[in-house]
Amino acid sequence: MNDSTSRQHSTASQTLYFHPDYLDAVRAGRKTTTIRFRDPVGTGPVSLVFELDDEVTLPGLVTQVTAKTVAQLSESDARADGFRDLAELHDRLRFHYSRIEPTDTIAIVHFRLVE
User: Fold this and answer.
1) Does the structure show a pLDDT above 90 at 54?
2) How many percent of the chain have pLDDT more than 70?
């Protein structure tokens, strides 16, 4: 492998870390987005890592990243993220990011699993 190939490989792959509660929803296709705050993500190949006692890693592909403020999130954003409704999504965002505000910009990361 030459230097340019190894550089391309190292920049092409990225990792998204998930709370273990989301593993089943991702595997079942109920969770197809993740909302990130101050965690830059780009499109392309991704390793989806679930932080359990025995770490679980699934291969994925980030297909789109959309910027919004927290206040602009919708019911459909909440459902795509695997939640019942917008209120539940807001509760989980405050759980993961205790200092998040309605005016903060977040990234909605659309992903899918790959075989």
Assistant:
1) no
2) 90
